[in-house]
Amino acid sequence: MERTITLLRLWNIPIGVHPSWFLIFGLVTWSLATGYFPAEYPQLSLQAYWALGLLTSLLFFGSVLVHELAHALVALRNGVPVRQITLFIFGGAAYISEEPTRPGVEFRIAIAGPLASFALAGAFELLFLLDHAVPLLAAPSVWLARINLILALFNLIPGFPLDGGRMLRAAIWHWTGSFQRATLIASGVGQVVALGFSAWGIFTLLTGSIFNGLWLIFIGWFLQNAIAANYAQTSTRYLLQDVRVAQAMNTGFPRITPLTSLQTLIDTQILTSGQRVFVVANGDGIERLLTINEIKDVPAAQRPFTTVGQVAVPLDRLEAVAPEMKLMDVLGRLGQAGVYIPVVEQGRLVGLLSREDVTRLLEVRAQLNVRMEPQP
Ligand SMILES: [Zn+2]
Q1: Which pTM does this prediction carry?
Q2: How far are the Cα atoms of 60, 166, 376 from residue 105, in angstroms, in the given order?
């Protein structure tokens, strides 16, 4: 969800749309303007259908936003920060920056969205009872009441990471006291739900309804992906939550002198030991970092005549972290393989952090089942 276009801020939360939102917004408007409204009001002009379609679409996405804001409001009330709210193809998502620390809090945050959608469905139903005699208001009111009801019910499906899945996780977490086990079970139920959607989609497809079939298969596929990503992220966060940079950093990097040629380094160290990162200590006291990436950029023919001091990167040009920082807070910077973050304490290099170091630590922790439950 990185490619998000921010529209406005509310309670200091950036509210944006994912590019896929424009597609679904267009589709909803189009289906209303060419299908629903012409059927409801046969005598109107084309412009009127599109105007009604656009307005109703906007109110629909306003409803989705209200659903997400309900999650955000309850999160903020419980002291859980909200990073952003994004509207995308299936409605919306509120990005809560930390996993809630108590099952009760998670349950309340999760249920707030569907409750808001039920309330909106009720409000539009009430509006319909008041305006059913007013020609241009009746059909949009009915449609909005129905779509909010669908939104509430869809989100209550107990497939993690849908709201219903989060509520299920909170409940299991409450009963078993184990956040990890609750996440595992709720993700498993989510997988079954996702498979159910796909199977239903294939069945629908085979019975001749191609559009509905593809749509259901797409929902199944989408849920499947969301569950897998969410589960991996939750596990990583869970396994690493008590880890500091100092515990994961690599301190076994060789120091080399600046006048060594690249070719010598390749022949005597890289090819023989597989070492991929070096610290170059220059006479000027400034430490430099040399990784495979810098060597790669030098053509092979020039490597015998290029010294490591010439291509190594001075540490002050790299963004360093402190050893006592939380590992979770710096994980985002370790995006690609082969990236090394210098760990600096009082101006001195004490270690290097790479994605490989974190992966190794994760494997060891998972194998040994080292865990620390969030305190209920
Ligand atoms: Zn929700």
Answers
A1: 0.63
A2: 28, 11, 10
Give residue 72 CA to ligand 1 midpoint distance, Å. Answer: 10
Q: 103 C-alpha vs ligand 1 centroid, how far in Å?
A: 17
The whole-angstrom separation of Cα 102 and Cα 269 is 50
125 part of the active site: no
In the chain, CATH 3.10.580.10 covers: 245-368
Question: For residue 200, how far is its CA from the centre of ligand 1 (angstroms)?
Answer: 23
- pLDDT tens figures, 34-91: 878 887 787 878 787 888 888 888 888 888 888 888 988 888 888 887 777 777 655 5
Question: How far does residue 63's CA lie from ligand 1's centre (Å)?
Answer: 11
Q: Which among 306, 309, 310 is positioned nearest to 261, based on CA atoms?
A: 306
Q: How many angstroms does the Cα of residue 15 sit away from the middle of ligand 1?
A: 15
Catalytic one of 68, 125, 319, 373: 68
Counting as low any pLDDT under 50, the low residues of the chain are 1, 372-376
Dihedral of alpha carbons 111, 113, 116, 122, sign:
negative
- pLDDT confidence of residue 114: 92
The hierarchical CATH code for the domain 245-368 is: 3.10.580.10
Judge contact between 266 and 303, C-beta under 8 A.
yes
For the chain, the average pLDDT equals: 80
Are 148 and 121 in contact, with CB atoms under 8 Å apart? yes
